[in-house]
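User: For a teaching handout, I'd like to show students what a predicted protein-ligand complex looks like in token form. I'll give you the sequence and the SMILES for zinc ion. Please answer with just the structure.
Assistant: Understood, here is the input followed by the structure.
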Amino acid sequence: MVRGMGQAGTQPRSPRKRPRRCVGCGREDAKANLLRIVRSPDGTVQISVSGKAPGRGAYVCADLACVQLAKKKNALSRALKHPVEKDVYERLEALCRDDAGP
Ligand SMILES: [Zn+2]
């Protein structure tokens, strides 16, 4: 007996799509193009490469200009409501350079 070939008509939960917004330029982008920075519950700020780290997250484009803009505006500190070390920005910049391709 086959009943209802997987017709998901109404879903009990409506998954709300939360756009990822870059803290540098303010553009929304697909998660794949953004770097995620996470403030973990114990107060450390780290770059989440896997995107799975727990905690409050902020996003910035994998773009050197955006990281530098975010640094200038101190945007990550504001987004995470926690002071972000220069070190974190430097690592983000390094990631962007890595990513930049050829
Ligand atoms: Zn950006």
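For the handout, you might add this sentence: The pocket of zinc ion is lined by residues 22, 24-25, 27, 60-61, 63, 66 (CB under 6 Å).
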